[in-house]
Amino acid sequence: MKETSREYAEALFALSLEEKTVREDYEALEMVGTLMDENPAYLLFLATPSIPRSERVKALLDAFEGSVPERVLSTLCLLVEKGRIPDYREVKEEFYELLLAYESRTVALVTSAVPLSEDEKNRLKISLEKNCGHSVELECSVDSSLIGGMIVEMEGKTMDGSLKSRLRRLKEAIEG
After folding, report:
1. CA–CA distance from 145 to each of 46, 89, 108, 151 (Å)?
2. Closest Cα to residue 100, out of 144, 48, 146, 135?
């Protein structure tokens, strides 16, 4: 599924690049995603094969024509026509990954035992940008089970500096 979603995202991204509307198109994908998340019955309707395809496409056109770029709407219609509309979220996520690469940005998922101060976030951001050579956005969350420290996931790598992990490694070393 992920490979097919990537193909749809790449096709839309190529069109967006040509039109110089990458950011606008992503924002439209986000808006549609939010509406679908808020109305799961609508996504179910669009995915129901017993409802004629033409009726489902018409519903999409009625809902989004004029409020999202034509390229995005065409992609949505194609997803409905090909029975791939349940993969919409994956397509949006793949498009976002392409956008990040295009803008030379990375998202770092930071999980800490306690909330990070703004100063700590800024220092971490500067350190990560220095290491990877491009802009980094932090998405921070808190998990008190880490006891202390943090875990950073970025560019397919995990850096685990949590106290929980250190204690587990120490226990494994002692138990031999």
Report:
1. 41, 30, 20, 12
2. 135
Contact 163, 148 (CB under 8 A): yes
pLDDT, tens digit, 9 for 90 and up, residues 142-174: 999 998 999 999 988 999 988 888 888 888 889
Q: Supply the pLDDT for residue 166.
A: 87
| pLDDT value at residue 155 | 86
111: β partners = 141, 151
Task: Quote the strand ranges of 10-168, DSSP E.
Answer: 105-112, 135-142, 150-154, 157-160
Count the residues in the chain: 176
* Residue of 131, 132, 152 lying closest to 141 (CA atoms): 152
Instruction: Please give the C-alpha separations between residue 137 and each of 66, 76, 92, in angstroms, as whole numbers.
Output: 32, 28, 18
Read off the pTM: 0.73
What is the C-alpha to C-alpha distance for residues 2 and 6, in angstroms, rounded to an integer? 6
Cα gap 52→49, rounded to integer Å = 7
